[in-house]
Amino acid sequence: MADELFDLSGKVAVVTGGSRGLGRSMCLAFAGRGADVVIASRKIEACEALAAEIEKTTGRAALATACHVGRWGDCDRLVESAYDRFGHVDVLVNNAGMSPPYPSLPEVSEELFDKVLAVNLKGAFRLSTLFGTRMAEAGGGSIINVTSIAAVYPGADELPYAAAKAGLNVLTAGFARAFAPSVRVNCIMPGMFRTDIANAWSSDMVAAAMRTLPFGRMGEASEIIGAALYFASEASSYTTGAILKIDGGTAFPAA
């Protein structure tokens, strides 16, 4: 019974930021459960490599697509590419994100601020609007937003990113109402995970953060899979507007 609940056979899943880190793990997990996948990121070569791996190891179809989600034109093209190839989309994961370091708050440039909000928030809004509308017209689907505990537990080193992710939490609730009852919209809110993004953090930032981790370690990318499969599949048939924190207890430590 549990296996049937998490079955994605016949489904098509689109994952932005899908070529590495958490996105890569989700693409592999979805394909492993029977879904065809659309892998989108700015670097087409990485998408193509993962698509080839998925097709070889799972037998599922995988479409590699170059997409800068901060540009609405790219978002529109991603939607058309997915529907042209597969004819339908059942799962959208807004996973693309960026949090470039900055030396101090006064040195955050307008360009950096706008870029961070575009990639983390604006693109997710556009893709959710386009995919969600088509999903609703087709009778159902699931949108999964990937935010961050920075949305509720922000640090001084990541404020534009935290603001964007807080906005994406809000969009989760709003889109859940906008596309109800046929399309579910939920959110995974990760803490510190050992991915490529973590490589950009300073040693001082990592050391300070590690002292706050009740589990004493970062999460591994594979530890996001359970939540992703839950929200993508019929296992979450009565769940929408939910925000699931996966952070080893970091954001709300026990008193």
Automatic annotation (TrEMBL):
Origin superkingdom: Bacteria
Record-listed E.C. numbers: 1.1.1.47
One GO process term, biological-process aspect: fatty acid elongation
Lineage: Bacteria, Bacillati, Actinomycetota, Actinomycetes, Frankiales
Naturally occurring in which organism (per UniProt): Frankia nepalensis
Keywords annotated in UniProt: Oxidoreductase
Start and end residues of each Ketoreductase domain: 11-196
Pfam family name, one: adh_short
NCBIfam families assigned to the protein according to its UniProt record, in alphabetical order: PRK07231.1
Name of the protein this chain belongs to: Glucose 1-dehydrogenase
Keyword field contains Oxidoreductase: yes
Family membership noted in the UniProt record: Belongs to the short-chain dehydrogenases/reductases (SDR) family.
Residues in the signal sequence: none
